[in-house]
Write a structure and sequence with these properties.
Elements lengths: L15 E5 L5 H10 L2 E5 L3 H14 L9 E4 L14 E7 L8 H11 E12 L1 H10 L1 H5 L10 H10 L2 E9 L3 H10 L8 H16 L2 H14 L2 E8 L2
Parallel strand pairs: 1-2, 1-4, 2-3, 4-5
Antiparallel strand pairs: 5-7, 6-7
Helix pairs in contact: 1-2, 4-7, 7-8
């Protein structure tokens, strides 16, 4: 499941891409497999990063100089272990809402991006996330949970003040919002509740089969129900 639209990033085999907070590698794997670019994944959680590394071993059993992938198993986005202007593209999907000091993370992203480099980030959309918080206080107090709800306009202005220009934006994953509302409605049972299990099965089918009609239906729903808002920026200098 990709939240960032990689087609908007003009990725080439020569691009140096950082997937910040890569989790199990959904975006990093796509960059390596579909674009053959050099991609670095960084995540604070060791187990997630290890799963991401296993994914690279599956999609790139024989690496070449043009498609080599490097994955840092552990790293702190508040002190990135990279030199200034090291990357052409930084991807940061569903990370900022977890960070007590997200502003410092944005400063680090700016530091490691080259001039005219691209920043693609996503956060939970405001009102679908607000419903989750209203349905379940435990949702945001879960370990590693969401610390804040972003509004698109203030977040965009904050990033622009750091020296970026906004290129575009969109919403994603409308079909996932009801799934999270169900989970929050009955948080105590979570995945053991039958409606949640059935809806999860439906989402897996939708992601693996990608029926065209359902894709179009979700695209129409995204501006209203999209679970994530995705923003694309370019570093000015």
């Amino acid at each position: 499941m990709q939240t960032i639209d990689l087609k908007r990033l003009n990725i080439s085999p020569h691009s140096r891409v950082l997937d910040l907070g890569c989790g199990q590698g959904r975006h990093a794997h796509a960059v390596a497999y579909h674009h053959r670019a050099r991609v670095w994944g960084l995540d604070l959680d060791f187990d997630s990063a290890r799963q991401s590394q296993k994914g690279f071993e599956l999609i790139e059993p024989e690496r070449t100089e043009q498609s080599r992938t490097r994955l840092l198993l552990n790293g702190d986005c508040l002190a990135l272990p990279f030199s200034d202007q090291a990357f052409d593209i930084v991807i940061c999907s569903e990370v900022l809402e977890h960070l007590p000091d997200y502003h410092s993370a944005l400063l680090e992203m700016r530091r490691v991006l080259k001039a005219k480099g691209l920043l693609a980030l996503s956060v939970p959309s405001y009102w679908p996330e607000r419903i989750c918080w209203a349905l379940s206080p435990e949702y945001r107090h879960d370990p590693g949970g969401h610390l804040r709800i972003f509004k698109t306009k203030p977040l965009t202005l904050e990033i622009k003040r750091l020296g970026f220009s906004r290129l575009s934006g969109h919403h994603a994953h409308a079909l996932h919002s009801p799934y999270w509302w169900l989970k929050c409605f009955n948080w105590a049972k979570k995945d053991s509740w039958r409606p949640i299990r059935l809806y999860h099965r439906f989402l897996v089918w939708e992601m693996t089969r990608s029926p065209r009609l359902l894709e179009l239906f979700e695209k129409c729903l995204n501006p209203l129900l999209g679970k994530s808002v995705v923003l694309y920026f370019q570093k000015i200098s």
